[in-house]
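User: I'll paste a sequence; please echo it back and then give the predicted structure.

Assistant: Echoing your sequence first, then the prediction.
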Amino acid sequence: MQYHVNGELVARENATVSVDDRGFRYGDAAFETCRAYGGEVYRWQRHAERLQRTCETLGMPDAVPDDLALRVAETLDANDLEGAYVRTSISRGVQLGKLTPDEDVDPTVVVYVRPLPRGGVDGERVWDDPAVVQSVKTRRPPDAALPADAKTHNYLNGILARLELRTASSDTYQPDEALIRDTDG
């Protein structure tokens, strides 16, 4: 597999991000997850616009490269993928040791892909049965605290909710998905 890292196609084993990158250190990054069919990203423009809005929310409005669509296409082509999971990530980049970000941004831009053929992996349908959904104690932060429409690298709420599901699971009860409520329930 090859990924696009900072404008270059690199082999998976060489695709790295600095430990001083703010996306790694603080979750200070935006992302979009997309689906490709026939080698083309479904509704790319909508994803690109949402990624731009998230970067604006994070105070880095110029971080999305003008050639991001080309980078995505090159990554799909380099891996000969028709059906794929596509994730674009943009962090504020490497900035050493302080919580307050620098005004100047040299973003880290990564395009990650993996095979995801139509109908699921190996032709197996992803889902046939009804889903078991369980509400969890973890609450969604209020929009006034963290903008709900910003897709950032910080998914701690979702992780905590999934850990709750794991705790609730037994031999006879296996919830598939967590229902995270707001602070008002």
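The helical segments are 22-26, 44-57, 68-78, 156-168. The first strand starts at residue 2 and ends at 5.
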